[in-house]
Amino acid sequence: MSGADHRVAVLVLDGAKALDVGIAAHVFAKRPGMPYEVQVCAERAGTVEGWNGLAYAVGHGLDALERAGTILVPGFRDPATVTTPPAVIAALRAAHERGTRIAAISTGAFTLAAAGLLDGRRATTHWHYTHVLQERYPQVEVDADVLFVDAGQVLTSAGAASGIDLCLHLVRRDHGVALANQVARRLVSAPYRSGGQAQYVPRSIPEPLGDDFARTRAWALEHLGGDLTLAALARRANVSPRTFSRRFTADAGLTPLQWVLRARIDRARELLEATDLTVTRIAQATGLGTDTNLRRHFGVIVGTSPTAYRATFRDGSEAG
Questions:
Q1: pTM recorded for the entire structure
Q2: Which residues pair with 104 in a beta bridge?
Q3: Among residues 174, 294, 173, which one has the least CA distance to residue 224?
Q4: How far from 245 is each of 146, 249, 297, CA to CA, in Å?
């Protein structure tokens, strides 16, 4: 990405949900060290009626989409019955043809589907409406079991909280792990939840065990270069390996060792972005052992090699 601020347009539609709008506007809000600029827009400038008695005073119309590098569409009420205005559909299609990145939070996916931007693509929305999205738009490959889907130029997410995950994912794509983690800390949010994680946990975890697991995860992140076997993690959480694995997987949507591997790759990304350490040294520092092991797992998870990833950031362009 270039040194200029990346303009993010938040498209507010009738019935927009306040949390969805706030997430999009807040994550990318302009502040020191944040290379983004946010503009909130609507079909036309003026007052837009929201949800639960709220309303939005919007200063920009659809012309804001023409200047945006990313468009975010927050969720709105009654997506099963709402008809997307033709002007909005035309503006989104034109933006897509220009190569603009377009993302939806929650039921905002219905707007993207109405514009035909999800045709033939994998996508998600809030779990309560996934079956409706599939029935209404059968050409979309709806995945009901994930937090968000990155289909390249077009992205979708589940309920409001997963909108944070999606926005942090975009920051990671644009500027790497370090800035995304900085934003997460500011939001007091988890720094990373995999897009493939389940949307909701079918049963709650007992609070004391949940606390122990949270402390174990925090400890593991501080000791990625150490021996993070299932037995070691379970011992730290004061439960048996079998119980730890079962409860951890239900909570995180990943097995403990899958989670450790992704955390190690995340740390490797950060070191590649911010240091001149060799790939061998990074492999050792992150607990992956050898550069061969790092390259293999890095390629599977990130989709490129560590050397190419570092070069992309040194060139100042986007990392995917």
A1: 0.70
A2: 73, 156
A3: 294
A4: 20, 6, 21
